[in-house]
Amino acid sequence: MLAMIQPSARLKDNLQQLSxxxxxxxxxxxxxxxxxxxxxxxxxxxxxx
Length: 49
Known about the structure:
With 49 residues, the protein is of the alpha+beta class. It contains one helix and two strands; from the N terminus they run αββ. The chain has one helix at residues 11-16, and strands at residues 26-30, 36-41. It has a two-stranded antiparallel sheet with strand order 1-2.
């Protein structure tokens, strides 16, 4: 399922528009032409040492 959000100036507001990430493997960021310009994988967080 492709979810589109209406972006706002505040990251907090944008994040609240997103669906829960359970089952999401990756988020692709696309440009105006639909080409993937970046991807973010859903991986467990690592702890800093």
